[in-house]
Amino acid sequence: MMKNFFQKVSNTEFLPMSEVRKIKIILVMAFLLVITAVTIPFSLFFKYNLLTIIIVLIVLILGFILIFALFRWNKILAAGQISIIYTLALTVFYTLGTGSFYAYLFFFIALTIIIFYQELFSYLTYGTLVVAIGVYYIFTNQAELVSAQDIVGSVYVYACILVLFYLIFLVQILYNEKLYIDLNYDWVKMNRLIEKYQDRSLTYLVELDKRQKRTPAYEDVKYQKALGEIAIFLAEHFREDGKDILNVRDLYIYVHERGLKRVLDNDEFSVSTKKIANRLDKYLLNSRTDMISMIFNFYTKFRETAPYRDNRYEYNLSRLAPSHDEQIIAMALIYQYLANEVCQEDHWDPSDKPLSHQEISELLTSPEMEEFLNAEQIAFYKDNSDLFEKHLRRKS
Amino acid sequence: MPNRQKYVFAEIEDYRELLETKHLRSKNLFVITISAILGVAVLTYMIVAKYPLQTTLSLMAGFLLLMLVNVACLAFGYENHYFYQLNQYVTSFGIFCLAIAMIFIFKSPSMVASLFIAYAIAAFYQDLKVMFISNTFLLFSAIMIMAEFPEYLDFINASQESDFAVPFFFLVFILVLSISSYIIVKQKRFFYNQIALSKETEFRNIDLLIDLETQVTGRTISLSKYYDNILAFTDAFTNKIQMDNIFVEKIHIMQDLENNTPYPTMHEKYPNYSKEEFDRLDDLLLGNHRKLLKLAMKINYAKDIKIKKREIFSETQFKSFNHQSDSLEIKILAFAVFYTALRRGNAAMRPLTEEEIYNVLVYTDYYYYIDPSIIRIYQENNQVFDDIVTDILGKPVK
After folding, report:
1. Exposure string for A150-179, b = 16+ CB within 10 A, e = fewer
2. Closest Cβ opposite residue A230 in set B160, B206, B340
């Protein structure tokens, strides 16, 4: 189990945010457990009376149990927040209990735990609170923090370093927040675009199936049987009677036949069955679902592809063609492609539906084109739109 | 679980590096600014505290040198992005050296914490190698101070437990910092990887779409007609602006390239053009999965894509068979559907063999797309999976 966890930590770059958040909670819990364990003997040296120490330690232990319980109940965000509050409580306990240098170090530990979560709001609230307590601590325990031959204003140096540490990480979190939002936006946009390609690819695939008189997988009895056997084999590892999974398979096939809406509208189905049907929707094989996307993506691994070049993912015309004459020729080619080839989704006839001159003009002057064409190229198109239409449009 | 996963598409490694380097420049700018502020603060303090001029100047020379190296690396980075990478190592090393120098100059416990500032500045780079440099410096500096220069932590009113507590909290702090930095660096990589992965997925999906389109419509682009039209178009355009048609030669070259004319013939026919120029023009062709065809398709499909704010960072965007909201039965069924579909194939996709599926599912990022317990069962019993499907669907042919 430990080995698996450490391997998971070392492969964090493959995990989505929710999984990484879980890892963070486990690691923070481990640190808090160690720190709390060490706090028990340390607290004997603190300025509190024994009763206060016992009460605080009981509260800390209960707090730790609460974090653990929230984690077990999959309330990851709440567990994270409680772990930060727990760290703050420990910080206050140290701050009021001792004036030593190690309590000063504790402020950095508390800040690092908050930084670990990389959440701007948490850092701004709890982080600021830690720094405020830290500055208060420095100025109230000046005598304990100076050495025999210390520098002038060393107390201010302590405070400045703590504040600077906080500010540097604040700038870093702000920078990361902006960067991750931008990257995520690009990623979501790209996913949407890929889904559009796959939508179209699926239309063609259905057409090919029809032409080759192939039964779609979900209607193929052999496929259904193989699917059932695999599902039973897997389910038997979790419970004695794995055959119950066949009910889910049958529902899955039924949703293909009838459609999700009819299943949801049917009063004969229980709420739990409808819930399962709803969850199965993203795994259907008869429309562009997550399942179809994953099958397509997996399959593309086994198709031949061009060798990698630095401009493999470059689709900006200015960067593909630095000179103006090449850009003009390329634009003329693009125009002809849009005017002549398969460009529009037509459910009645997937084979042919090119764009009209007006549609091309709207497309080439739309804001989405900024990714591919610069202002100069778009202006060129607008100025010479009549020539494009006269010489390059589709001729019947 | 295999010790080291790889991404399903090897091509993304280079692009991810490119993305990281692209953002290194802005990170370097932040680091220069913070270092400069730090330098000014230290200088002000030394002047106010009336430190000897020689000490002040030597420390400032260190800061200045760091700035100069940064500026130089940023300038050279335009030409070669490896300078940005070099800069992050040099800066991390330099900033720790300055922190240690400050500890020795001021000989104050308050200055020991300047090591944390150095760590915070280096952490800006979010790089594993930089993290290693920082951790090594921090750990050895802490050990050095406690073992060799304990007088720097010689407090007037030290408490009894301090002898144990100070090294302990130093150690805890270094550990928390290291693990936190490690996970944050990996998290950043996740985002870069996802972008790179989506670019490669797009590249391959366009290829698939082009092939399916050709198969279904049975049409190929009438390139000769296209180029004739372009000649007429450029004639009209050059007439309009009253100049000679300068496009003719390049149009002919592109036509020859579309016809897959070998390079020696091209070179003979167009001696004024280099191999690089032919390669560049090759990207501007429409035939045979060329770059411009992909650009034209992308232009067509890119319209009307609107992203809502709530979709950013949404887990639903991450396609997998390991959604938290799905019950175990649904996860089992989803995996079974996926596996069986790959083994069955379809009109355009050949059935995949067990070995092909196993190698991707177990050794690449796909491992994490599936519930851990399910993928473990598959990993340990893949032969059973193979037997079940082969019995029912027959053996796939490669």
Report:
1. bbeebbebbbbbbebbbebbbebbebbeeb
2. B340
Contact B258, B275 (CB under 8 A): no
For residue A223, give Cα distances in angstroms to A297, A340, B35, B341, B356. Answer: 21, 40, 64, 8, 19
Structural contact between residues A6 and A23, judged by C-beta atoms closer than 8 angstroms: no
CB B258 within 8 A of CB B285: yes
Computed on alpha carbons and rounded to an integer, the radius of gyration of chain B in Å comes to 31
CA dihedral A264, A266, A271, A274 (to 10 degrees): -40
Q: Which residues of A touch B9 (CB under 8 A)?
A: 301
Testing the interface with A: which of B5, B104, B216, B241 to mutate, by most A Cβ within 10 A? B216
| C-alpha span between A186 and A182 (Å, rounded) | 6
Q: What is the pTM of this model?
A: 0.86
Which tokens in the block code for residue A138? 């420095």
What residues of chain B lie within 8 A of the CB of A119, using their CB? none
**How many Cβ pairs within 8 Å bridge chains A and B?**
523
- What tokens appear for A145 in the block? 């923090």
Please state the ipTM of this predicted complex. 0.86
Considering only CB atoms, B229 lies closest to which of A165, A326, A336, namely A336
Of B48, B114, B186, the CB nearest to A161: B114
Per-residue pLDDT of chain B (398 residues; tens, 9 = 90+): 555 568 888 888 888 888 888 888 888 889 999 999 999 999 999 999 889 999 999 999 999 999 999 999 989 988 888 888 899 999 999 999 999 999 999 888 889 999 999 999 999 998 889 999 999 999 999 899 888 888 887 777 667 777 888 888 888 888 888 998 899 888 888 888 889 999 999 999 999 999 998 888 887 888 889 999 999 999 999 999 888 889 999 999 999 999 889 989 999 999 999 999 999 999 999 888 889 999 999 998 888 788 887 777 676 778 889 888 899 999 999 999 999 999 999 888 899 999 999 999 999 989 989 998 999 999 999 999 999 999 998 877 65
CB-based contacts of A243, cutoff 8 Å, min separation 6: A232, A235
Query: Distance between CA B207 and CA A360 in Å, rounded?
Result: 23
CB contact under 8 A, A341 and B221: yes
